[in-house]
Amino acid sequence: MRDAYQKIILPYTPENLRMLLLQVCDEENHFSHQDLAYWCDKYTLHYYEYDVDETQWMNDMKQFDERQDLARSYAIAKDVGWQWYFYMSRGTTLADVQHVELHELELPKHLFVKWLNELYEM
User: Is 33 in contact with 84 (CB distance < 8 Å)?
Assistant: First the structure.
C-alpha cells in the first residue's frame, strides 16, 4: 500500500480512462482503487444520456469513430464502478471493512488488464 493517495482530478475522457487503467496495470498509480471507482461513477454521470437512451449507446458502439470510443469507455467506466461495489459486498468480510481503510482495498489486477484490452479493441 502507498503512504498517500491523490484524488483523481481529470476530465472525463476515454483517453484519461485509458491512462488511469494503464497506471494501475503498470503499478504506477498514485490513487486508490476506491478513488478510481468513484471517478468512474462520475464519468458515467457525465455521459448520462447513455443511461437515458440505451439505443443511442448501442448505435454508437457500432460506429467506427470517436462515438464508439466514448460508448466503449462509458461501458467500461460503468463496469469499474459495478465491480468495486460488487467486490465490497462479496469480496470483503465485515472484519476487512472494520479494520482496513477502504482506500487500501484493491480489485484484482486481471480486471484492469481486461478493461484496458477492451478499450484498445477497435
Answer: yes
60 vs 38: CA distance, rounded Å: 25
Tell me if 107 sits within 8 A of 33, measured CB to CB.
yes
Query: 56-84: per-residue pLDDT in tens?
Result: 888 888 888 888 889 999 999 999 999 99
Q: Which amino acid is at 52?
A: V
Q: Are 44 and 81 in contact (CB under 8 A)?
A: yes
Grid cell locating 17: 480512462
pTM across the whole model: 0.85
CB 37 within 8 Å of CB 84: yes
**Domains of the chain, residue spans:** 14-120
Is the pLDDT assigned to residue 108 strictly greater than 50?
Answer: yes
Are 83 and 108 in contact by the 8 Å Cβ rule? The answer is no
Q: Taking 70 as the threshold, does the pLDDT of residue 12 lie above it?
A: yes
